[in-house]
Design goal:
Layout lengths: L25 H19 L12 E7 L5 E7 L5 H9 L10 E5 L4 E3 L1 H4 L13 E8 L2 H6 L1
Parallel strand pairs: 1-5
Antiparallel strand pairs: 1-2, 3-4, 3-5
Helix pairs in contact: 1-2
Length: 146
């Protein structure tokens, strides 16, 4: 949840607000905060493995609810949280951070950020060479329990 007061938003790694002196609008502050979070998630992603990497990889195609798509290769041994960080860095199709889960259709398997914690990508069930991940909004019950 975001703070109610725009003055209480602290962005230690973002210079956007410093470039906009005098901005006091909560909407602008919130939008700037979200952009900073996206930029930080993008900056923290490790380099994408090459197609001929020696360790096992998985290529993931992310289908966002707004119709956009993004793809990336990951080492299967990397933390599964990177899947969510990558989707967030691509805007998550307009879904809020933590407000969605990743779904594989055939057979239907759900990767929920609250469940994966310290699991690797392979342990989260993505061990074939290619996966299609749909970003699906969590229901109210799922969001409240997370």
């Amino acid at each position: 949840m975001f703070p109610r007061s725009p003055q209480s938003i602290v962005l230690p790694h973002c210079n956007l607000l410093q470039a906009m002196p005098g901005v006091q609008s909560p909407a602008v502050m919130l939008q700037s905060h979200l952009l900073c979070v996206v930029q930080e998630k993008e900056a923290l992603l490790p380099p994408e493995p090459s197609g001929n990497a020696e360790q096992p990889t998985v290529s993931c195609l992310f289908r966002m609810p707004d119709g956009t798509r993004a793809s990336r290769r990951f080492f299967q041994s990397q933390p599964a949280q990177l899947l969510f960080d990558f989707a967030d860095a691509r805007g998550a199709g307009g879904l809020p951070f933590g407000g969605y889960q990743l779904v594989m259709q055939f057979p239907r398997r759900v990767v929920d950020p609250a469940v994966i914690q310290s699991r690797s990508i392979a342990e989260a069930g993505l061990s074939s060479g290619q996966e299609v991940l749909l970003l699906e909004r969590k229901s109210e019950d799922q969001t409240m329990s997370a």
